[in-house]
Design brief:
Leucine Aminopeptidase, subunit E, domain 1; six-stranded mixed beta sheet; 6 strands; about 40% helix; globular; binds adenosine-5'-diphosphate; Macro_dom; O-acetyl-ADP-ribose deacetylase
Amino acid sequence: MSGISDRIRVHTGDITKLAVDAVVNAANSSLLGGGGVDGAIHRAAGPELVAECRMLNGCKTGDAKLTKGYRLPARYVIHTVGPVWQGGGKGEAELLASCYRRSLEIARNHDCRTVAFPAISTGIYRFPKDEATSIAIGTVSDFLRQNTMPDVVTFCCFDEQMAELYRRAVTALREG
Ligand code: ADP
């Protein structure tokens, strides 16, 4: 029997190389580019991306906004703003879950069958990786249970250690 875990993939590598309908960007609230995955996406997409982002008027933490993908193999970029980790008492977990949910709603509303996420907030924003992984898998699997679109979600991890955390969480989902 096929389950939700069959619609979840874990990939190790650079998200800017993925030919999916939408890649999610871990942006900052200005949406004007930054370091980490944000910088990599803007470099690979070309200057047209920041030009479109300038017209969006920024984005609140926990929310997401869509642009075209320009020179990326992905058709769209969904820019979401993760919470900066401040110890856990500032609603960080709920804000991170909201990033995944809002991104998936926008993807579904634009008929995206395939979506790739980076590990939002786990870099410069210092969210603990274990907790961020369980929020990512929990929120995405809940959404997939309730929606047929997107069909497949890929978690694109930059390193093998992160990918291992995700694989373990997907296995737990399968066995749970
Ligand atoms: P944040 O500010 O939300 O913490 P970062 O870009 O600093 O965002 O980090 C988010 C995650 O993205 C980290 O796990 C980092 O290792 C990863 N990352 C950085 N560059 C890439 C890339 N090109 N493709 C996929 N993941 C990346």
